[in-house]
Specification:
- The protein is an alpha+beta fold.
- About 50% of the residues lie in helices and about 15% in strands.
- It has a four-stranded mixed β-sheet with strand order 3-4-7-8. Strands 5-9-6 form a three-stranded antiparallel β-sheet, sandwiched between helices. The chain has a two-stranded antiparallel ribbon with strand order 1-2.
Length: about 400
């Protein structure tokens, strides 16, 4: 038996109403320094520079994922019947802690450190010196490893992997609803309640009753629109490019800003250094760079802090690109070309069994979503688009 809190803890949430915590290990993990750090990490990278209310954190999202998983394992009979209490604890902890390894400015941080956030998450969970590891091992000596296995998609109970990471997982369901709400857009809305009412488990696969198929269609389209309208917004990309170019310049000059020294080539960032690196620290470093002797570094620090974004042209003609290039003196830093492919963000793809949403038909058979939905069948025929943009100083 796992220890329960002296009463059910509740945290108010704009998406789920309340987050409910009844296990002590969950409450302990929430109060660990590694999880509290997520208060200081924006959920949406550079999008808060485009959608001014998108100030929500990885902390809020992680609690939201936890709450969806808590409901899944409590309200869906076929899931309840297929897992024991220890497995419930494992998947709840994995839901809560799945984003521990995110650095400042979300996925963009991975470009600077050359490390995947899931890899860092597992390192933090397995490090005996972290508070979150101590919270987990206090509850059960095997819990850190089991949680890490779910995050790495290699748990022996496949349904636990699917609940956290699949085409229809709790992570996606929370971030679509939360990001739509926080950005003031409607693109990411779908009927979460209907999906939760129609989720089932059959043959160790997470699936949806045929009667819930239309809600899943809405969910798929919500994901597609959120990527192109919010997550891939060109101005958000412009902000991230400024940060990328700032660090490119910083690594090339002989100048020390203490908080950024861990980003020098060859330096291996320790878990302790990572825990201390949040967006507050990054912005402090940018403020320090305002006094740099290097004019380019000062300029990028100013642009980042005061939102002086690069301009951009989508799919420019040869003449447009030439015109821009001719008026820019330092092309290495003030001209940037990107290509965005929709291949990774097509509404839905059925690459293999694990990347398929399964429909439980009225005959109690499992069929791929594309065989049941005419809409999805048409979506699978969509071709990837590639958009080229040039970014430049205005």
């Amino acid at each position: 038996m796992f220890n329960r809190t002296n009463e059910i803890k509740v945290l108010r949430d704009p998406i789920h109403g309340y987050i409910h915590v009844e296990y002590q290990v969950i409450w302990d993990c929430i109060n660990s320094r590694e999880f509290q750090r997520l208060h200081r990490i924006h959920q949406l990278g550079g999008d808060f520079q485009v959608y001014h209310t998108a100030e929500h954190s990885r902390f809020a999202h992680s609690l939201g994922v936890y709450e969806i998983v808590r409901r899944m394992i409590s309200e869906i009979p076929s899931i309840c019947e297929s897992i024991d209490e220890f497995e419930r604890i494992q998947v709840l902890c994995a839901a809560l802690l799945h984003d521990l390894g995110h650095g400042p400015f979300s996925h963009f941080f991975e470009k600077i450190t050359h490390r995947n956030h899931e890899e860092i998450t597992v390192d933090l969970i397995m490090d005996p010196n972290t508070e979150v590891h101590k919270c987990l091992i206090k509850a059960h000596q095997d819990l850190p490893l089991k949680v890490a296995m779910i995050i790495e998609h290699r748990h022996e109970k496949e349904v636990l992997n699917q609940i956290i990471s699949s085409q229809l997982d709790a992570d996606r369901m929370d971030y679509l609803l939360r990001d739509a709400y926080e950005t003031g857009t409607s693109y990411g809305t779908f009927d979460l309640e209907r999906i939760l009412r129609t989720i089932r488990v059959k043959d160790e696969k997470l699936c949806i009753k045929e009667s819930g198929m239309h809600s899943v269609e809405d969910y798929i389209m919500a994901r597609y629109h959120m990527y192109w309208q919010v997550y891939l917004h060109p101005d958000a990309k412009s902000y991230e490019i400024l940060i990328e170019l700032f660090f490119k310049r910083y690594k090339e000059i002989d100048e020390i800003i203490d908080v950024f020294e861990i980003f020098r080539e060859g330096h291996i960032i320790t878990n302790e250094e990572f825990i201390l690196m949040d967006e507050c620290r990054m912005f402090y470093g940018f403020q320090q760079a305002l006094f740099s002797k290097d004019a380019i570094l000062r300029d990028f620090a100013t642009r980042i802090l005061d939102r002086h974004l690069f301009g951009w042209i989508e799919d420019p003609s040869i003449e447009e690109e030439k015109t821009v290039l001719n008026r820019i003196e330092n092309k290495e830093y003030y001209f940037f070309k990107t290509r965005s492919s929709s291949k990774a963000y097509l509404p839905y793809q059925e690459k293999d069994d694990k990347q398929t949403i399964w429909i439980l038909t009225q005959k109690n058979e499992l069929k791929p979503l594309s065989q049941c939905s005419e809409i999805v069948k048409a979506l699978l025929k969509m071709k990837a688009q590639t958009k080229m943009r040039i970014y430049f100083s205005k």
